[in-house]
Structure formats: C-alpha cells, structure tokens
Amino acid sequence: MMKLIIAFALLGLIAATSLRPPVIDFHPSWTEKQTHKFVEGFFEGITISSSEEGYKQIMNQNTAWGSSFEKVLLMFAVQSEQGKVEALANLGLVMWGIEEKVNKSALHEKMGYTIHKMREISFKLAQRQGHPNLIASSVNPNELILDAIKANQKGEHYTAGQKLGEALLELYFNTEKATSPEFAAFVNSLNPTWEATTYSKFEQMSTARFRDTHLGGRKKRVIKPHNKRTSLSKSSKSDPAPTAFDSREKWPKCVHAIRHQDHCGSCWAFAGSEVLSDRFCIASNQTKDAVLSPQYMVSCDPKNFGCNGGYLDLEWEFLEQQGTVEDTCWPYESGQGFVPSCLGFSACKDGKEMHFYKAVLGSSQGIMDTEEIKAELVANGPMETAFMVFEDFKAYKSGIYKHTTGAQLGGHAVKLVGYGVEGDTSYWICANSWDETWGEKGFFRIAFGQVGIDDEAIAGLADLIRS
C-alpha cells in the first residue's frame, strides 16, 4: 500500500518532467491463464480486438504484457482504500509501459495514438485529485472501475479487464477532441491510402459528443434473410457488373445533393430517405422527383430511436408500410437533438396536401454478396449501408479510406452510390450526411471489406402505384 502511495505522489513530477516512471516492485499473484483472461477482456474493453495482428502480438508476448497487466490488477484492487482518483491516476504508469511495448508493433498503427492520449489523460487526472466528479459523461468511468473491482473479487478476470478497458476508453472519449491537427498529423504520418485533416466544426466537441450526435447506425439486427426479388432486371442477374459504376453519372438528375444531419444520430433516416428519393426519381424517369423527409422518419418510426440511432431493416419496413413525406412538407428540425412528436404532425408545413412515398411491400432486402450489391446499384440505383466508425474516419479528407488508427466509436449509416478500382484497390463510393465541407464534397471512398461497409447493404423498390 505504501509503495502505491509513493508511486502516486511521483505522478505529478512524471507528468511535468516527462521522465520515465519509477520502477515499482509489485508482487503479482495471477496465474498465466488468469493474466490472459484479463488481457483479453481489457483489449475487448478498449476495442483493440479488431486489430488481429496487434492482438496476436500481445498474446504471444504474455510475459512482458502479463507483467504490465498484473500491475493493473494490484492498482485497481486496492482502489476502495486508495480513492477513485488515485486508482485511475495510477493507470498512467501502466499506460506508459504499454505504449513503450506497442511503439514497434503492428498494434501501434491501430491504437498507438489512443494509448498515447489515454496515458496523458491519466497523468493529468493525477493532478485533479479532490474533484469528486471527474468527467461529465453518460457512462461514469468511476462506476466502471468499481464494476472491475467487483468482477475481480468474484474471480471473473475477463470481465474485470473489460470493465477497466471501458473505463479508460470512456475517459479518453470525454477528454479528447473529435478532431485536432495533432491527430490528423499522426494519421498522415502512417502513410495511409487516404489523407486526414481537421475540421473546425468538430474541434469544439469531445469524441464522446461526436459519437453521440453524428453516428446512429445500429447494426445488430441487420441483415434480414436474403429475399428473392422478381423485379431485379434479368440483365443484372446474368451479366457481370461493370468494373466501375457511379450512379451520379448514370442518373445525374436523380442522385440528390449531400445533406447534413447536424447534432442528431439520425444518419439512418437521412440515408434511407435519400435512397428512396433517388430510386423514385430513377424508377419514374424523373416524373416523381422529390427530396424526402428524414424528419418524418425520426419522429414517427415507432420501432427506431430518433436521434439515438436506428436499425436499417426496421427502417425499410417502415418505408414499405408507412412511407415518408416530402422534405418541404416536414423539413428537418432535429439538428440540435430535439425530436418533435409525431402526434403533433397533422398537416404539411408548406400548406400542401400530405403525400406519402413508399417502398414496394416485401421488396426490401439485405444483400451481403459484393457482386450482388454491384448488380443492384447498376439496376435500381443507390442503396443504404452501415459500417463501424473508428476515430480516424471523422478526419477523412480524400482518398480511399482504410481503417488506420484509433478506437471504435459506433455504427453509421450512409448512402452507397457506386464503386470503382484504383490500382489494385477496389472501393465503394458513399454519400455521407455531414454536409459538403466534409470529405470529398460530402462523399467518401472506402475499400471493399473495410469496417463492415459491404456487410449489410439494403434497399427497397420505389412503389409507383401506392405513392
């Protein structure tokens, strides 16, 4: 106990002088199997498990890594005596050691920046002892630490590691800015296939705030079983899709402009309404060309969650059964996170007659096969897809995105408009909903197979009879 107190007292000096932390003589009691369980849980908690090569390196270096994590165990096991702030601050010593280990490993490219920043944050935390409320967050890192302690007392080493990892990640998300010049420079230093930048509109919010307001694609329910569709053109079934395709070029008057979801997790409603808008224009030969309302979906879809996200399959069931109105009938109002009640909507805001645009009943299908996604794009136009956003994606400026570094933030839905090939890299072309100042004038390109982008493309056919 005395040694831990001494270690804590030295943290302020460490943070100020950037000296290496002192060597502390711990006497761990974990077995190798228990250590592995904790390591596995910890990296699941900070979402590093997606880095397969880095994860393998960690597990193969169980002696060096085990020593660091055994120190973590002792640090949080005495937390109830030592105080919450001290226990979190002591993690700085461990995070320092972890960073030294990953600097020369494949893991550094995936999580190096995050680990570096978490270490800095835990050092800063040491200087804030005495503050009972460390972070204003929907998830309290202190509660996660207590959960880790309880799990450890029960001998649940995996859960203990996972909860501790989640605590560190939540602390990081609530302290780190959504974008910064430092982060963009770090990404670009790794020589990715794309270029990162910083966006002033994101610099004033934390990563946690960005996650809660700019994402919203829920992936767990999707995809529905593949349904046969009789209306898919025969040529798209029998003929191979072209090497490259862009619906903006084939239907330039039907693929509508980039939109902005603002501070609301309504990406699902934007992507879905935009896909149906484009498909009505295409299917009707431009006779039914209207921008459709995401607001009606955000407020009125009873199975989804407004500004807190939505499931794509449930969304398309809603579009088949209920449909949505034109954007001029109910313009977007939820940009700051407020969701007006559907019960209060009885007439179009523009005074015109209310008219619903629907997808054909039973036509919505999730497609997992890359060639079938291509064929559907060529035959019927844009589709909706969802993928997992990592920290680096929000800094995307141009190029073909491949996940390079940073932690997992959450699901996001976008409109899939085409595909192409550059060199030996095949990529999808997508329309985002973060306005035209982001990415390639609101669009982005992403390599096939990256972060689930082609796992769950979905769309229904425009119902020209019922609409």
Could you please describe the fold and organization of this structure?
The chain has 467 residues and is of the alpha+beta class. The chain has 2 domains: 2-176, no CATH class; 209-459, Cysteine proteinases (Cathepsin B, Chain A, Alpha-Beta Complex), CATH 3.90.70. Helices cover 44% and strands 12% of the residues. It contains 18 helices and 11 strands. Strands 1, 3, 6, 7, 8, 9 and 10 form a 7-stranded mixed sheet that branches. Strands 2-4 form a two-stranded parallel ribbon. Strand 8 and strand 9 (425-431) form a beta hairpin. Helix 6 packs antiparallel against helix 7 (107-126). The longest helix is centred in the N-terminal third of the chain and has 20 residues, at 107-126. The protein is globular, with a radius of gyration of 25 Å. It starts with a helix and ends in an 8-residue tail after the last strand. Residues 1-28, 48-90, 92-111, 125-139 and 220-237 have low confidence and may be disordered.
